[in-house]
Design brief:
Number of helices: 9
Strand order of the largest sheet: 4-3-2-1-5
Number of strands: 12
Distance between the termini: 67 Å
Largest sheet: 5 strands, antiparallel
Helix content: 25-40%
Order of helices and strands: HHHHHHHHHEEEEEEEEEEEE
Structural class: alpha+beta
Amino acid sequence: MIAVTHVTFAGFLGFLAGLTPQKAALLGLGALLPDLDHPRSFLGRAFFYVSIPLHHFLGHRKAFHGFPLWIAFTALGYFKPEIYLVGLGAISHILLDCWNISGVQALEPFSERVLVLFSRKYRIATGSSTEYILLICLLFLTAGTTKVNAIGGFRGLVAYITASPKIALQQYKSKGPEICYLSGKLRWKNGEIEQISAQIVGLEGFNGVALRLDDRLVHVPAQANLLKARLKCSGQKYETLRLTGFAKTLTEAYFFDGKAWRFAKPENYVFGQILGSKLSLEMIEIDGESHL
């Protein structure tokens, strides 16, 4: 296979595993290394002073394309994780080369047996039109996997397709004090169904959640039930504070009274756990005692 196919295949596996672009790039680097044993390869031309001796003493697709070498290399990742990813990238190269017509002596130096994937009829010649079709498919798959990761991986994809309230709230629990929104359908206790897009204020009890709908808070499931819900998070965080007493808020804020979240307008009093987009509190005095 040509270099770009190996790099794309390694990147696809990395994004499929949920790796960051930086870590997937290490897989891509590793996917180029086995071809150092060929002076006309992408890396071989750049590092000919290494490639020519390797090719002379080891040949192409033999020991330097062997699983034993790169498994041993990958094991060094115990001491440095980056090595582990580079080694896995090299192993992905060998696997993909087993799809070539000639296969790979992937067990060198312990065996000269050639390993191949599929029968000859379904193998791919390097640089052929079939390989370019494979490359295009990998590029599309990689792009699709990147989008899947952006919505939280395959669990996020399932959550988006099914619009499951349970999965959406489980996703929210992992976000911490991030400003997130739920869009979907709400069924009020009187049976009326409403399409909503509401900001999440916080969790209540075992499976409850407080939503800000317009200028009011809705408590689920006390006041309504979510029929469908998709989570979208802004990447921004709430400011949070826990008061030992109570204070006056100078901005809009939310506070947890021990049972449910409450909404406080400016000049209202708050206590307990406080959060808001921008918190500004004023200390108050009661019977000579300061509270904040």
